[in-house]
Amino acid sequence: MTMPAVLPLAHGGGGGDAERWWQIAAILAITGVGAAYGRGVQELWHRARVGAGISPPRAAAFAAGLAVLLLAQLPPLHTIAEESFAGHMGQHMVLMVVAGPLLALGGAGLPLTMALPVGARRVVARLRSGALGRWLRQPIRRVLVVGVLHTGVLWFWHLPAPYTAALHSPAVHAVEHLSFVAAAWLLWSAVLAPSRHRVNGGMAFLLLFGVGMTGAALGAVLTFAPAPLYPGHALAPSGGDPLTDQQLAGLVMWIPMDMVVLALALSVFVRWLTGLEHGTPGDRALPARGPGPPAPAEEVTTR
Predict the structure, then answer these.
(1) What Pfam families is this protein classified in (predicted)?
(2) 294 in any annotated domain
(3) DSSP assignment of 239-283, as one string?
């Protein structure tokens, strides 16, 4: 079966039909998540639960995040990613610092939970009220988990061996992109989700500062390396100097990520100082919820 030409091959052109099918699967998955979110939001509005944190601007942000994910799979961005390591890095940054924050602003935990069957909602409620859920609600623990996860995913997939494996296997490539989106979604949700679910104050600033520094460190390694760190076919596959392609990729990672993280970190820091000056509890770190009965299934927000 011949697929539409709009669905290009894997990076390096070795994906063939397998890559096209993985792209179709990605598009269907993104569409399915959007439909589930819309169903959940509709259910919340029907129950007059808009106050739970899903306002029209948040719903619009989530839709924009899904649109960015779709655009990242199609030309011209996908084509640019095929032509150079720097273009591939640009695609990664779109997933992590554009789509990630938009999805986090959508506050998707509650709507996606409401879209589940009743039995599945109860399972989510039990997980959230269980030992692991209570452990993760401690702000310092959540900061450590999402910070280490984001940094680990970013560094792992830009090591030469995993990166090369993603070039050769459409399945590994799909897992790579999925892990980027998931890690970024969790990170940005920690500071951009509805106020009752986000980390505030100094811990939010430290989280963003730490993530920004580790991302900048990886960008610096790629930019200042005296020789190519990746196999020849992974750098400048369409022609050009491999070392220059690697250095440009380092800058593509370094600058956009640092700009987004720094801007948000400064915003969080100013809000924190303002809250301390005026004694606003909402701008301080939220206390963990103590032991108690499980939250109602329709009020469960997944992390």
Answers:
(1) Caa3_CtaG
(2) no
(3) SS-HHHHHHHHHHHHHHHHHHHHHHHHHHHHHHHHHHHHHT-GGG
How far apart CA 92 and CA 81 sit, in angstroms, is: 9
3-state SS string for 39-91:
HHHHHHHHCCCHHHCCCHHHHHHHHHHHHHHHHHCCCCHHHHHHHCHHHHHHH
Averaged over 275-282, what is the pLDDT? 62
51 is in which domain, residue-wise?
16-286
Residue 198 has what pLDDT? 81
Q: Are 295 and 129 in contact (CB under 8 A)?
A: yes
In a domain, 299, yes or no: no
Which region holds residue 301: left if phi is over 0, alpha if psi is between -120 and 50, else beta? beta
Residue 138 pLDDT > 50, yes or no? yes
Nearest-CA neighbor of 87 among 71, 76, 99, 100?
A: 76
Sign of CA dihedral 41, 46, 51, 52: negative
Asked if residue 102 belongs to a domain, the reply is: yes
pLDDT band at residue 48 using 50, 70 and 90 as cut-offs: low
pLDDT of residue 238: 83
In a domain, 297, yes or no: no
Distance of CA 242 to the CA centre of its chain: 29
Q: How many domains does the chain have?
A: 1
Reply yes or no on whether the pLDDT at 193 is more than 70: yes
